[in-house]
């Protein structure tokens, strides 16, 4: 399912939440597009973990051009990067030979920070090697682990930062109200742009964004936050290049609500089979909803109950056909 979604969707929204498993704290990551939903519960919520999920069912590491571009973007040590480049493309079947290769190159594989970035690059290279993600826009709430590839920021979470400010005077309260009003008006304008996109109007949106987020109000905390958001201009205005993407991660939050409800009622899982079954079943249920299929009809078809003459095609095939 995840493979079909990643090769066919123009965007995904992502989010995560806590999950109990075998009396320990795990994390459930949601990856969803317009036609599919996938849940994966793992021990970590790191960027390394997220990239391993985006790799789908593959286990390999591929230090190709995409991997070295990733290292350059992350400002990895240039000398180490140069030492890893090979004349012929390389591909390692899993983590063990990849780590052995790094050790052979004189890299301290016990340096968690250095090896983490190199492992992320190997995963990103594998993702691109298998044709996954491509130019998909990854829309997130700005959690650090999700900031990879063609990334866009959720406007609702960005505005929430303004909402969290605590003005100390009536003047600061008025300035904050003004700034939030400007942001919400701009948000509504972007929503209108999505309905009728016009490349000719994109420069005007960029100039309007600059005017809002370079304001100097005299309220120090507000000015610093506006400056911080202005630095994320490309990610907040990704919709101007990709009008089909959502401006928020509401879809992920809505999908995760089912997971949270299940957690509140049933607690956590104990066995690995139970953990996988929960993730798979919830993902299939949400995918069926997005595809307009009856989840019970789908289950009946797979179990051979009451669906004679009206079979349900494999869901990945339907996801690919809807692209």
UniProtKB/TrEMBL annotation:
Residues 150-274 form the Transposase IS66 central domain. It holds the Pfam family DDE_Tnp_IS66. It comes from the Bacteria. PANTHER family: BLL1576 PROTEIN. This is Transposase IS66 central domain-containing protein. It comes from Rhizobium vallis.
